[in-house]
Design a protein that fits this description.
Helix content: 10-25%
Radius of gyration: 23 Å
Oligomer: single chain
Distance between the termini: 50 Å
Order of helices and strands: EEHEEEHEEEEEHEEHEEEHEHEHE
Number of helices: 7
Length: 312
């Protein structure tokens, strides 16, 4: 419950509907995601009723889920059908739904209940004016893009500044990854990994580093490339190269990563083979100490395969 001078606001938080699928992302072994056998039923309607009985004039549901979307003819198209169906049973019991997770954008309604899902990564703010009267609750939603500003100076700013000052190399021309489109940036990352490890093949990914307003979700511009930029385009990483031996069948399975997939709207995988065609752009890595000895480097997670018996 959030108390304001005008009214008390009840907030209901919903996590993702498929936590079991996210178990591989758990970073704390002692806080594993619950599996299907541990999922619990939860009634948003009952929770909203309890909040209103406790004095809430407005009830907001914040969801770790959002609308699907795609690009068609270079135009962003939101598809709220799946998300609407998931909220249909309880949407009328709350006054506002705040969505996210899918890295898209949507401002609309589900059965009369307003939904706000601004562009991700802090690039846009959803602003909701709420009018509470005897006639009920009325919400009016607007949005505001967040202009670029100075570098963060709060907690952790020294880490950000250090990564920003850590220049790894120079890029002769820009590289990008486009939603459901070409992703030369991902291919380049895979080739860069292959250059610093003794392997037959490598795989590397890049994911959403910016709002996909124009269809581009990851980008490196011409010029110096810093460690901070790599953290932007490969955020879900322990910053190391993973190496293992695999069979030919497993290698064929991994090749599916670089083929078209539904996830390609905000994630792209690139692959490279030893002895393959060189990318026309070279990135001169200036600090990869100990790579040949340790087979690990503070850059990104990848999968790579090695000589006689392929290694990944």
């Amino acid at each position: 419950m959030l108390s304001t001078p005008e009214a008390d606001i009840g907030v209901i938080g919903l996590t993702h509907h498929n936590l079991a699928s996210m178990s591989s992302w758990t970073v704390a072994p002692d806080r594993k995601m619950p599996g299907k056998d541990k999922e619990k039923a939860f009634s948003v309607t009952k929770a909203a009723e309890e909040l209103r009985r406790a004095g809430a004039s407005v009830v907001v549901c914040v969801c770790h889920d959002g609308v699907d979307w795609h690009f068609a003819e270079n135009r962003y198209v939101a598809d709220p059908e799946r998300f609407s169906a998931r909220c249909a049973d309880w949407c009328e019991s709350v006054d506002l739904i705040v969505a996210g997770h899918t890295l898209g954008r949507f401002f609309g309604e589900i059965r009369g209940t307003p939904v706000v899902q601004p562009w991700p990564l802090g690039s846009e703010l959803a602003i909701v004016d709420v009018d509470v009267s005897s006639a009920g609750v009325h919400c009016r939603a607007t949005s505001q893009l967040v202009p670029p500003g100075p570098q963060w100076r709060g907690f952790g700013s020294d880490v950000i500044r250090g990564a920003s000052d850590d220049v790894l190399g120079y890029l002769e021309e820009p590289l990008l990854a486009k939603s459901h489109g070409p992703a030369p940036l991902a291919s380049f990352l895979a080739k860069a990994v292959l250059e610093v490890c003794d392997a037959d093949a490598s795989f590397a990914y890049t994911t959403c580093a910016q709002p996909t307003i124009d269809g581009i979700f990851a980008y490196l511009g011409q010029g110096e490339v810093t460690f901070l930029q790599l953290l932007h385009i490969v955020p879900y990483s322990d910053l190391g190269i993973v190496t293992a031996e695999i069979s030919e069948a497993e290698h064929a399975l991994l090749q599916q990563l670089v083929r078209p997939r539904p996830q390609d709207r905000t994630m792209a995988w690139g692959g490279a083979l030893s002895g393959g065609i060189e990318h026309p752009i070279t990135l001169r890595w200036q600090r990869l100490q100990g790579v040949q000895q340790t087979r690990s480097v503070s850059c990104w997670d990848v999968v790579s395969t090695g000589p006689a018996t392929p290694r990944i």
